[in-house]
Design goal:
single chain; about 425 residues; alpha/beta; Rossmann fold; five-stranded mixed sheet; about 45% helix; about 15% strand; binds nicotinamide-adenine-dinucleotide
């Protein structure tokens, strides 16, 4: 069973641990423990039956010392202020580790889009954008899609924002449709970035890419592209994949087209058939004897109760928060290399950054330029993280890669705050 975890408490505890290891200034630490700005909105929307429903919306601008706040907008029935605050804190560290000129932010609305019509979703989105007003913008806070929001949602927000500001500035939001100067490479940039990290980590761990066996949990944007790109980037083969219903394992490898058609016709990849295919539960998939495990679905999948059974050499956190802090410790003791989410999935926000740069400059690049820049940037983040971990090991202090990444990210934000005279 998943433990009851307050995500913001986890985010604060991770910061506290990093602050202790790196000897962070007490004042900088105090500033970074809480968001700079929190907006809570009460949003009335006229529904299709002509009654008015009131929705709660949030936007948290956690820190903007290094640049405008940056982070997605989630539409979710269980959305809470603490979740949004935690995700905004993690965005701050993600943008800092990636060394892009953004701070961290996140937004959300408590709503169940599955029970709403398209017209109601549009009305809610536009009302949220009007409530945000000039509190978002290319130089203020740049939102993007997240859970149950998509390029169309971003287009509606952009349209409202243009009407409010009377400025046609496409850089005020990212993850837009390509017709509104969204970026072609953005769709797969999260997984592509993760695959560049996987390539570098495999080299470091002497895992032979071509012979490596990979299991992927999740068959959505992150998981499906991770499947596809692990072949393209590394020549490696995915032997197991899953969705919310369950998974499938075939030691001979899996065929993407067949997975897609199986999912379309039966509702789940678990019904994939081949000579050696075996059905799996999601928990069994996590415990497979593979070289590389990629959780790319939801949070809290590797926990205190199953961490001991994980057998991979390399765990790439492509999802946000798939490994709980307790499990983190267990994996560390077992000698499994667990690379943290805010490094592994930072390709998404790096892709958003490239969209913003192109919108602001009006200079649009080919996708091969986009991918080459992404590769260089995320590879540097990986190398920085490994070097930080090694510098502590050389001093006789063993820290995990999450802490190494935290120390880099927090250190950069603290330096920017110091230069701006915040402490
Ligand atoms: P998605 O909605 O496209 O796909 C989610 C997948 O997870 C689906 O295949 C679904 O069937 C599966 N799933 C749901 N519940 C599950 C369960 N209990 N067990 C196993 N599988 C389950 O979402 P996505 O965009 O692929 O995001 C996946 C993860 O990656 C999330 O944690 C997200 O925050 C993170 N992420 C995504 C991006 C991005 O650009 N898409 C960027 C950064 C981080």
């Amino acid at each position: 069973m998943a433990e009851e975890l307050n995500p913001f408490k986890i985010a604060q505890e991770q910061l506290d641990e990093a602050a202790g290891i790196m000897g962070l200034d007490r004042q900088a630490h105090a500033i970074l423990r809480e968001p700079k700005r929190t907006l809570i909105m009460s949003i009335p929307v006229r529904m299709d039956d002509n009654t008015t429903e009131v929705f709660t919306g949030f936007r948290v601008q956690y820190n903007d010392a290094r640049g405008p706040a940056k982070g997605g907008i989630r539409f979710h029935p269980q959305e809470s202020l603490d979740t949004v605050k935690a995700l905004a804190a993690w965005m701050t560290w993600k943008c800092s580790l990636a060394d892009i000129p953004f701070g961290g932010g996140k937004g959300g609305i408590v709503c169940d889009t599955k029970k709403m019509s398209e017209k109601e979703i549009e009305a809610l989105t536009r009302a949220y954008a009007r409530h945000l007003g000039t509190d978002i913008g290319a130089a203020v806070d740049v939102p993007a899609p997240d859970v149950y929001t998509n390029p169309q949602t971003m287009a509606w927000i952009l349209d409202e924002h243009i009407n409010i500001t009377r400025k046609v500035q496409f850089g005020s939001i990212t993850g837009k449709p390509v017709e509104l100067w969204g970026s072609e490479g953005r769709m797969d940039s999260t997984a592509r970035g993760g695959m560049f990290v996987m390539r570098e980590a495999a080299k470091m761990l002497n895992i032979d890419a071509k012979k490596a066996k990979i299991a992927v949990q999740g068959f959505g944007n992150a998981g499906k592209y991770a499947y596809e790109l692990s072949k393209e980037v590394m020549g490696a083969s995915v032997v197991a994949i899953s969705d919310s219903e369950g998974g499938v394992y075939d030691p001979d490898g899996l065929d993407l087209q067949k997975l897609e058609s199986t999912k379309a016709s039966t509702g789940s990849v678990m019904n994939y058939e081949s000579k050696n295919a075996q059905k799996l539960t999601n928990d069994q998939l996590l415990q497979l004897d593979v070289d590389i495990l990629i959780p790319a679905a939801i949070e809290n999948q590797v926990r205190q109760d199953n961490a001991d059974k994980i057998k991979c050499k390399l765990l790439l956190e492509l999802a946000n928060g798939p490994v709980t802090p307790e499990a983190n410790e267990i994996l560390f003791e077992k000698g499994i290399t667990d690379l943290p989410d805010f490094l592994v999935n930072s390709g998404g926000v790096i892709g958003s950054y490239y969209e913003w740069v192109q919108n602001i400059t009006g200079d649009y690049w080919d996708t091969d330029v986009f991918y080459a820049k992404l590769d260089k940037k995320i590879t540097r983040s990986f190398n920085d993280t490994v070097a930080m971990q090694k510098s502590y090991a050389d001093k006789g202090k063993k820290i995990n890669y999450r802490m190494a990444a935290y120390i880099i990210a927090v250190g950069r934000v603290a330096k920017a705050m110091k230069a701006r005279g915040w402490y």
